[in-house]
Amino acid sequence: MNDGTEDGVSTNDGVRKAAELLGAEPSRAVAAVDFDGTLAPIVPRPEDARGDAAAVAALGRLGERIGTVAVVTGRPAELAVEYGGFAEVPGLERMVVLGHYGAERWDAAAGRVEPVGEAVPAGRLAELRAGLERLTADREQAPEGVRLEDKGRALAVHVRETDDPVRALALLDGPVRALAREVGMVVEPGRMVLEVRPAGVDKGAALASLCGAAGTPVLYAGDDLGDVPAFREVRRRGGFLVYVAAETGEAPVKALAAMADVIVDGVPGLAEFLSAVADQLA
Ligand SMILES: O=P(O)(O)OC[C@H]1O[C@H](O[C@H]2O[C@H](CO)[C@@H](O)[C@H](O)[C@H]2O)[C@H](O)[C@@H](O)[C@@H]1O
């Protein structure tokens, strides 16, 4: 954890404030975290990402003390459950995973994924897949190292493994947006990635449906642009926000840093923070 002095809030103050908020009504309280870059360290290949054992255990410790713990992610819910290693972790027996930015919900208690809302027709996804395959095979528009991740309901174009990711993103941005428009989907930019996903969902709406009525005490932690709607929703509800600053040397996400109550150093910083909040609640 850093001392959070950039925004004038020490992390110790943050731990105390977060524990006070969640502890005021523990049975109603919600603690939700993003997956990649928050609970799982960033790695070059999406399929190699795994939940950090200390961070997952800390989330479980919170789960033993409050009503709801959740993961809100752009990943398919089932994949986040598998990569997160949530099975058998004490305190996560009732956890919720909201996948695909809220288009899927997995409840640990039921052990299955339910779709939320309308799915994009298979034909449009096939059209998008074909367009992105053509684009990423074209070396004039997609440099060596560009990778396509097929997530079923969405596709992501990754540039982390190219020689110059910033240039690769600049080259791909226009063509990816054009393909998204053609199939009526939207582009979600993230850390070294451009994702094409269905419109009509975001992490703010997902979190709102999880929290329900106003007044639910809520803490949220995230690291990327896709978390901005969740940060806004939590701010609107008077909740507590943790920005997980990148450990990989990437530029900070200013919108998150500006709204955060506390800034922690990467996934290990979040593990330490959640664990300290759980200690205070004990
Ligand atoms: O909402 P999130 O849980 O943060 O998911 C957002 C995207 O994360 C993944 O990509 C990111 O993590 C990869 C593994 O560490 C990394 O290689 C990549 O550069 C990051 O952008 C994931 O692959 C995407 O599908 C998610 O949408």
UniProtKB/TrEMBL annotation:
SUPFAM superfamilies: HAD-like
EC number: 3.1.3.12
Pathway membership, UniProt: Glycan biosynthesis; trehalose biosynthesis
Coiled-coil ranges per UniProt: none
Cofactors named for this entry: Mg(2+)
Pfam families: Trehalose_PPase
GO molecular function: metal ion binding; trehalose-phosphatase activity
Catalytic function, reaction form: alpha,alpha-trehalose 6-phosphate + H2O = alpha,alpha-trehalose + phosphate
PANTHER family to which the protein is assigned, alphabetical: TREHALOSE 6-PHOSPHATE PHOSPHATASE
Similarity remark: Belongs to the trehalose phosphatase family.
Biological role stated in the UniProt entry: Removes the phosphate from trehalose 6-phosphate to produce free trehalose.
Name listed for the protein in its UniProt record: Trehalose 6-phosphate phosphatase
Upper taxonomic lineage: Bacteria, Bacillati, Actinomycetota, Actinomycetes, Kitasatosporales
